[in-house]
Structures are given as C-alpha cells and as structure tokens.
C-alpha cells in the first residue's frame, strides 16, 4: 500500500497548482560611505545611482576632497565610497620641486637642496623617498626629520 503517498501527492498538486517563483529586482541598493565625512554610514539609494545623484545625502567634512571622484560614476549595491581629505600641508616632491621648495624640508639647507637637485640630474627621478639617503650628507637621522613632508 505504498501507492497512497504518491496518490496523495497528485491530489495535493491538483488542488494547489504550481506557480513559479517571481523574483523582482530590487529598486534600492546600499552604499557604505566613510573617510572625510561627518559620520560613517550606510545609505540606501535607488539602484544604479551616480555619485552626483547621491552626494546631497552625504554630510562631508570641510576637508573632504571630491576632486578625484567622478560625478557620473555609477554605484553598485554594497559599494564602499571612501572620501579622501585634502592634505593640510602639501608634500614636497623630490622629483619636481625647486631648490627653494626643497629648502622648506626640516634639516635641509641650500647645500643639501642643491645636492638633491644634482643627484636628480645625474641619476634620474627618485623611485622611493628613501632614496634621498643616497644623496651626500643626508643619512637616516636627517631623513627622519623630514620624511613625513616628502613625496615623489
């Protein structure tokens, strides 16, 4: 008498016809915003929104740098927007700055700045900021005084 369970299944299927599951695409998505904002948060925005469309929902700090965020960038569900901040003091470039600008580095006078320029002319561009220690007269102790002010 194992026919009964199969027969019962057919009766149930006849009473409740099979309906395919309907999947509706979500009309909203969540974006995580952090960095130079007043409060790190998740925001719910319409699907496929652009940065330009949602920027009014974000409370930026005064030092927020939006110059490198493309306004028509399309955002996706669970994207993370990290808003950079403007540096209060710009870095001094070993590869492009002048004698006067190099002299703004802590512990660097005219002679050392001139040596940096000469090293750059002979050896080409610096590949790492640490390479400035190859310049005559600049060793680790001096480098540690200004390393936070440097960039390439």
Which key terms come to mind for this protein?
152 residues; alpha/beta; 28% helix; 5 helices; DNA polymerase, domain 1
Proportion of beta-strand residues: 5-15%
Helix and strand succession? HEEHEEHHHE
In the CATH hierarchy, what is the class of the largest domain? Answer: Mainly Alpha
- Give the total of domains: 2
Oligomer: single chain
> What's the story with the biggest beta sheet?
3 strands, mixed
Specify the CATH homologous superfamily of the largest domain: AF1531-like domain
State the end-to-end distance: 85 Å
CATH topology category name of the largest domain: DNA polymerase, domain 1
Which ranges are low-confidence, i.e. pLDDT below 50, for 5 or more consecutive residues? none
- Helix content, binned percent: 25-40%
| Record field, number of beta strands | 5
Describe this structure in words.
The protein has 152 residues and is α/β, with parallel strands linked by helices. The chain folds into two domains: 28-83; 92-151, DNA polymerase, domain 1. 28% of the residues lie in helices and 14% in strands. The protein has helices spanning 3-15, 51-54, 99-102, 110-123, 140-146, and strands at 28-35, 41-46, 80-83, 92-93, 150-151. The strands form two sheets. The protein has a three-stranded mixed sheet with strand order 2-1-3, with no helix packed on it. A hairpin with a 5-residue loop joins β1 and β2 (41-46).
């Amino acid at each position: 008498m194992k026919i009964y369970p199969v027969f019962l299944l057919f009766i149930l299927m006849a009473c409740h016809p099979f309906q395919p599951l309907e999947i509706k695409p979500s009309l909203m998505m969540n974006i995580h915003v952090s960095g130079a904002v007043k409060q790190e948060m998740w925001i719910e925005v319409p699907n496929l929104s652009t940065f330009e469309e949602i920027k009014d929902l974000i409370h930026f700090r005064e030092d927020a740098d939006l110059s490198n965020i493309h306004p028509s960038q399309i955002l996706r569900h669970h994207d993370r927007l990290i808003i950079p901040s403007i540096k209060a003091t710009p870095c001094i470039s070993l590869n492009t700055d002048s004698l006067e600008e190099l002299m703004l580095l802590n512990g660097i006078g005219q002679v050392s700045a001139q040596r940096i320029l000469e090293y750059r002319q002979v050896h080409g561009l610096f590949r790492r900021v640490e390479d400035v220690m190859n310049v005559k007269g600049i060793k680790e102790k001096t480098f540690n005084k200004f390393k936070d002010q440097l960039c390439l």
